[in-house]
Design brief:
2 copies of one chain form a homodimer.
Chain A lengths: L2 H5 L9 H17 L6 H7 L4 H7 L3 H24 L5 H18 L1 H9 L6 H27 L8 H13 L1 H4 L8 H15 L6
Helix pairs in contact in A: 2-3, 2-5, 2-7, 5-6, 5-7, 5-8, 6-7, 6-8, 6-9, 6-11, 8-9
Chain lengths: 205, 205
Amino acid sequence: MSAEAATGEAWEDITPDAARRLVVAAVQAFAERGYHATTTRDIAGRAGMSPAALYIHYKTKEELLYQISRVGHLRSLAMLGEARDGEGGAADRLASAVRAFVRWHAEHHTTGRVVQYELGALAPDHYAEIVVLRRQSEDAIRTIIADGVAAGDFDVPEVSGTTLAVLSLCIDVARWFNPAGRRTPDEVGALYADLVLRMVGAGRR
Amino acid sequence: MSAEAATGEAWEDITPDAARRLVVAAVQAFAERGYHATTTRDIAGRAGMSPAALYIHYKTKEELLYQISRVGHLRSLAMLGEARDGEGGAADRLASAVRAFVRWHAEHHTTGRVVQYELGALAPDHYAEIVVLRRQSEDAIRTIIADGVAAGDFDVPEVSGTTLAVLSLCIDVARWFNPAGRRTPDEVGALYADLVLRMVGAGRR
């Protein structure tokens, strides 16, 4: 699989082409060696560019990490917000959110690992911005669960702890998912949607 | 908090004292900078020792990672095996396993992250040995769930996928747990035990 295929189509909106190639190379390098062990020279080399050419697009290694983190978090927020605002009852919307979020973390597991494990390497202002996006994603799931409780469809021990557990279960797919394994992203998404509906007590009443 | 307190009492069995101090220093360094960005000189420095003194105990950086991974995985296996072989029905044993496994990942979240995220940096023979321990841990949970299904106490869509989800939920506590946060390790353990019993359909029948 090419480096680009392995990190998926998450970067299609990044232009010009050279900037996108640098992001793909950075994700691969950070995933393999960790952020701190990667140099901008490594990234430029992987993208088939010179360090000077990298510098035209990204002034620092941290700017690349920030771009990766920002795109990843915006995608997460978009899909969870879409599920929250979708048609149907809370159970349908929660299942949609889990299926989409799991599929993303399975298909983009390399990006997902970088995004989740290297948060501490972001500059303080960038970190603060990402934390806001994370809270908004959390709010989307919390809203669906609270809607279900209010409608009498769900019965949960604690809305906020359950929200945390649902997000955690989906995010951790990026850690263990193996494209050569026995389950496709869609299959994991379907299994997890079922397990999450059980967690919130959907259909118990 | 001292470096030693932060990584907890997981290393009490490692002797002599100098070897234990090196393990604690390695966990901290790997967690902060990643395995590949850490040198044996960094680790020796954090432990207040010379590189030559480190070499008496560990010939390579990878040997330190292997020691950390081995101790962490043996602890996990011991606690999950104890829960599997414990008194009571499958629901009690599954709840015990989840409470213990969650508490460990919360209390030792720094070690947990190193153990989980740096698996790929182990030498092939060490990696193979760790994979065996991971399969045995997985088997402990799978056995409890299968026991519950056989006894008619649990109703699960798929034993093996549910086992994976239960382990994943517990392991990911190491990623998000914050000792300054609103929940204690015991509180997360209790919440998660409840959520997992819902996942397996305990008490539905």
